[in-house]
């Protein structure tokens, strides 16, 4: 590696880290938090005895899972301008990622709820609980422990997927790396540096996920 390349690498690290902390991570956290609310509501709708709710929720999941995330972002950011709806890149990215997390997460939540033994429902009913009370007090707390590993993986995947937000002008880490490449003409060096930072973020998240899983396992065993 030449002295020029070393200088470029060192000069690139700080802007990339700043973009990751100031833009990539907040987008990930906000989108995942909102997405989980959508996921739980969608899962409950799909398990509902009210068929219109099941139909709407199923259609939403079908559309989101059946179309590319990048296409969804383009429709939200660029397409909606043709009907008079103009969104900032952050808002458009948040909506797109929230819908994606909500659709995929709902299947995880739904599967986790359905994995709870039928006897749990019967025990709740024998105590005089309504279906809603059984969900809140018995079923969902147990399902939450089951769903932590797959939802943790979804969170880590979302962090990487935020790189797609650069395509709608959001100044996240990958977008910043593209701007640096445009001035330095060192794509391999700069993109590799961005990849290392993504890897660092994901490693930390994986470590936190493992800690959470161990604590939940101890709680479940007790």
From TrEMBL:
It is found in: Cell membrane. It comes from the Bacteria. Its main location: membrane. One of its GO terms (molecular function) is L-cystine transmembrane transporter activity. CDD domains: TM_PBP2. Residues 21-209 form the ABC transmembrane type-1 domain. InterPro entries: AA_ABC_transptr_permease_3TM, ArtM/GltK/GlnP/TcyL/YhdX-like, MetI-like, MetI-like_sf. PROSITE patterns: ABC_TM1. The keyword Transferase does not apply. The chain crosses the membrane at residues 20-45, 57-79, 85-105, 188-208. It is a multi-pass membrane protein. Belongs to the binding-protein-dependent transport system permease family. This is Cysteine ABC transporter permease. It comes from Paenibacillus herberti. The lineage of its organism: Bacteria, Bacillati, Bacillota, Bacilli, Bacillales.
């Amino acid at each position: 590696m030449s002295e020029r390349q070393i200088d470029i690498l060192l000069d690139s690290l700080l802007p990339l880290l700043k973009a990751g902390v100031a833009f990539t991570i907040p987008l990930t956290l906000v989108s995942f938090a909102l997405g989980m609310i959508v996921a739980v509501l969608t899962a409950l709708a799909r398990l509902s005895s009210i068929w219109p709710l099941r139909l709407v929720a199923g259609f939403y999941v079908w559309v989101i899972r059946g179309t590319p995330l990048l296409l969804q972002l383009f429709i939200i950011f660029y397409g909606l301008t043709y009907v008079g709806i103009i969104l900032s890149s952050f808002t458009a990215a948040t909506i797109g990622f929230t819908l994606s997390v909500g659709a995929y997460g709902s299947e995880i939540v739904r599967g986790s709820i359905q994995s709870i033994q039928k006897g749990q429902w019967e025990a709740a009913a024998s105590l005089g609980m309504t279906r809603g009370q059984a969900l809140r007090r018995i079923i969902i707390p147990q399902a939450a422990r089951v769903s932590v590993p797959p939802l943790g993986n979804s969170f880590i995947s979302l962090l990487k997927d935020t790189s797609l937000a650069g395509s709608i002008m959001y100044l996240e880490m990958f977008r910043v790396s593209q701007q640096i490449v445009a001035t330095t003409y060192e794509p391999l060096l700069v993109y590799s540096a961005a990849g290392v930072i993504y890897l660092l973020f994901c490693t930390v998240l994986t470590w936190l996920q493992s800690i959470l899983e161990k604590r939940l396992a101890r709680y479940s065993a007790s």
